[in-house]
Design brief:
The protein is an alpha/beta fold and 128 residues long. It contains five helices and five strands. The two termini are 18 Å apart.
Length: 128
């Protein structure tokens, strides 16, 4: 049985979307997929996910622009956003423009550890 609010995974690389989707499935929520920031915004506004896993570098609208739009929209501003990035400087704290993100995860990531972090972040939602 799925809980109400889905998880949104945003990445332009199909294999990363798939690995992330499979690693989130055991959490018992629907997993929605988007391939760029514009698609992510449309889905986030429509579905109001419990958390968004957002790639940093994407075509059309990158993670920084999507994060800014999400946080400026009253409907989506309180949704936690996890930035997935192959850029090491983000993960070690040099994240100008990404201050509103809840967590940074370096690619490649451990699907198990990522799932544990997401579980930790959405657990208060489950117990509320």
């Amino acid at each position: 049985m799925h809980t109400d609010k889905p998880i949104l995974v945003v990445d332009d690389e199909p294999h990363i979307r798939r690995v992330t989707e499979l690693s989130m499935k055991p959490l018992g929520r629907r997993v929605l997929l988007a391939s760029d920031g514009r698609e992510a915004l449309a889905i986030a506004r429509r579905e109001l996910p419990c958390i968004i896993l957002l790639d940093h570098i994407m075509p059309n609208m990158d993670g920084k622009a999507a994060l800014e739009e999400l946080k400026n929209d009253p409907a989506t501003r309180d949704i936690p956003v996890v930035i997935l990035s192959a850029r090491g400087q983000l993960v070690v704290g040099h994240y100008s423009g990404f201050e509103a993100a809840t967590l940074f995860v370096a690619k490649p990531f451990s699907p198990t550890l990522l799932r544990q972090e997401i579980q930790r972040l959405i657990q208060p939602v489950l117990s509320a």
